[in-house]
C-alpha cells in the first residue's frame, strides 16, 4: 500500500478580517450584556 502525500485543500483565509470580525462581535456582546444589566434582566454570562 502506497501513501499519497496529504494536500491542504482549505480555502485561503484573511486572518486580519477574521480578527476584525471577532473584535466587532465581542464589542456587540459587551454592549448587549451591559444593556441587559441596566434593564434589570439577566445577562447571558455564566
Structural class: mainly alpha
Helix content: 40-55%
Compute the number of helices.
Answer: 1
One letter per element, helices H and strands E, the order comes to H
Shape: elongated
Task: Let me know the average pLDDT.
Answer: 85
Largest pleated sheet: none
Measured on Cα atoms, how large is the radius of gyration?
Answer: 20 Å
Distance between the termini: 52 Å
How much strand?
under 5%
Counting DSSP E segments of at least 2 residues, the number of strands comes to 0
* Poorly predicted segments: none
Brief synopsis:
This protein has 46 residues and is mainly α. It contains one helix and no strands.
Structural overview:
This protein has 46 residues and is mainly α. The chain has one helix and no strands. The radius of gyration is 20 Å and the shape is elongated. The termini are far apart. The mean pLDDT is 85.
Fold blueprint:
Blueprint: H1 15-38
Which terms summarize this structure?
1 helix, 52% helix, 46 residues
Amino acid at each position: 500500500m502506497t501513501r499519497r502525500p496529504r494536500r491542504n485543500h482549505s480555502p485561503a483565509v484573511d486572518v486580519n478580517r477574521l480578527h476584525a470580525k471577532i473584535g466587532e462581535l465581542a464589542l456587540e456582546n459587551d454592549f448587549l450584556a451591559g444593556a441587559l444589566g441596566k434593564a434589570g434582566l439577566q445577562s447571558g454570562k455564566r
